[in-house]
């Protein structure tokens, strides 16, 4: 139980760094490059996925699995399902409930965090 909790905390810290990366890339794409907000969101997400995989593999889960491509594929699958959930929640909160875009994004990230940790704990690593 203690090991699980420590991994949850590490996953949260890695996720926090991923959120910062995600927001920076999303903001750059949306505000500076004037891309569609959902495409910008996907770009931020994809950049954070790459960063999060590396950090979670080596630090959070200390994986020694030599099948890196297979493991990354699992991580990517979990992340893409998380992206679908994130986007659906983002659209619901922003388009339907009229919450501000970045507040909607924060809420979507918080909700999807629990899916991502559980799926990666039991399936990926």
From TrEMBL:
Record has Transmembrane helix as a keyword: yes
Keyword hit for Iron-sulfur: no
Domain of life from the UniProt record: Bacteria
TM annotation in the entry: 12-29, 38-55, 75-94, 106-123
Domain GtrA/DPMS transmembrane: 10-125
Keywords: Membrane, Transmembrane, Transmembrane helix
Topology versus the membrane: Multi-pass membrane protein
Compartment(s): Membrane
PANTHER family assigned: PROPHAGE BACTOPRENOL-LINKED GLUCOSE TRANSLOCASE HOMOLOG (PTHR38459:SF1)
Family per record: Belongs to the GtrA family.
Protein name: GtrA family protein
Taxonomic classification: Bacteria, Pseudomonadati, Bacteroidota, Sphingobacteriia, Sphingobacteriales
